[in-house]
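Figure 2 data, in text form.
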Amino acid sequence: STLFNTVNGVIGAGVLALPYALRLDGALVGGLLILLVAGLSERSATMLLWVSDATKQRLYAGIGGAVGGPILSRVVDVAVILQNLGLLIGYLVICGDLIPEFVAYSRGDTDAGEGTIDWQFRAIILAVLSAVVFLPLSSLKSLDALRFTTIVGLVCVLFFVVVSAVLGSMTAVDPHTVPCDATRGEMKLVPATFVDFLQSAPL
């Protein structure tokens, strides 16, 4: 379950961020960056497994402590907390942006998503999600209790990938087939500006 939770956290956030990163970086530079990061991730995972076997440690903080002492162990703990906090904030922002638009669109409001944001409704959505979903899940004492939500999350990620691929294919054939913000503008091969690269590279 720990493996699935880690995969869900990393892949879920990455899949949600990739379309925006590719839009800024372009297909060529974005594709090269994806390959570079994939290679670095594979190498990092291999090194972590090797050090874990050598030190007989199974936790990130334990590996950090075995390699660099208690200071590095604390640094690793802080890094993991910051990563999880960043993921949670990212999911909150996405939910706060998309759920009000979905509700407005389901009511027949075709102008939803055109830059008009109902901040009060957005705040209510975030408060309810935090109190009903995120707080109870983050208060669980064991990651094993998240195994069912992890499966649901992975299914949602797979659904997102399939829908994005279908919409992307339809847009490539006819840019006017899918009337949404994603079809606006042309796909670039390289970033338009260096600022675009700096904005998307961390993603």
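Caption note: Helices lie at 2-25, 27-55, 60-106, 119-138, 147-173, 194-200.
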